[in-house]
Amino acid sequence: MSAPPALQTADLLLRDATVTDHDALQSLDGASPDAGAALIQARRNFFARTAAYNRCRTIVAQQEDQIVGVLCAALTPVRVAGRPCSAGYIFNVRVNPGQRTRGVGSMMMRAAADWLESEGAPYVTGLIGVTNVASMKMVTSLGWEPIARFDYLVLDLARFAPDPEVHIRKVDALGDRAHAAWRFGEVFLHNFVPRYLVSELFQPYPRGPYMGSLTAFGPGGNAWLSLWDDRARRGLDPGSVRAVKAYDVTLKGRGGFRAFSAIAATLHEAGLDHLLMPIPHDVNARALIDPFVSDLVEFNFCVKRLNGAAPVPSGPIYFDIRH
Per residue in 234-290, pLDDT tens? Predict the structure, then answer.
């Protein structure tokens, strides 16, 4: 795919990033410790997140010889209300502190939305921190609206206790087609679920970061979760960063959280310190799990309609763990 032409104003150039921009982009992204909420996006390879998508652009804003902004945009096949379409996802928007409030972010957002619209996408989505007032103000002025909210939790696995009454089993979602059909059938009607869910999010190493799934059965309930380990792709040392991501999380029955807790304790016994887990915002769920949370980021899930698309139908939103 050839790169779209660069856009330029009197003092600002928008172009596609190249590998030679890596160090400048990593510097713009900021150096954060590999701890707490920073673990969610920590990386030493700036392009690691874009590599998770088949079609993705990294747009940089350049002023003279200095990169002052960056934005990543992916185009992914999804389902909305069960119907297949392509949707954009904009992420990793960064602007040099000295250039903020000067329209750099808005210019990059418009350029990305224009590209996605030209590719026929009816929607573009993004995650914006609930407390990021400036960014929320910018995107709403560009026609975006929040339609859901997620809490990205950092769970301290040491706080969970083993439970001998809960039986845990490891499952390969790809190894049992009947089991996979039963398991994933529940989410196929979620909005923005990947159209090729199994092949995109459940490919084990070395083809993908899927570590397998764990199911637990205990008194009065059961739990299921899948594990995503992209530390190597992000350039992080698994020996020092003992944290992986959990997705496809389901708890059933009054004993569902007890079964989940047993899985978490087992992961700690296996050498992990933290579990990074996004969940839909729910007051009751948070009351149950907050004692085990060491850090978190609350996100608005925002969407902008393109190409005259209708509003997103009501219903649950699927959180793509690649995000």
Answer: 889 999 999 999 999 999 999 999 999 999 999 999 999 999 999 999 999 999 999
Q: What is the pTM of this model?
A: 0.91
Whether residue 206 has a cis bond before it, omega within 30° of 0: yes
Cα-Cα end-to-end distance for the chain = 23
Range 7-149+300-305 classified under CATH 3.40.630.30: yes
Report residue 16 as tokens.
């596609």
List Cβ neighbours of 10 (8 Å cut-off, separation of 6 or more): none
Token output for 124? 């573009």
| CA–CA separation, 248 and 227 (whole Å) | 9
Residue 96: strand, helix, or coil: coil
Q: Collapsing DSSP states into helix, strand and coil, what is residue 21?
A: helix
How much is the pLDDT for 4?
59
Fold for 153-297, please state it.
Aminopeptidase (3.40.630)
Q: Which helix (H) or strand (E) holds 303?
A: strand 293-305
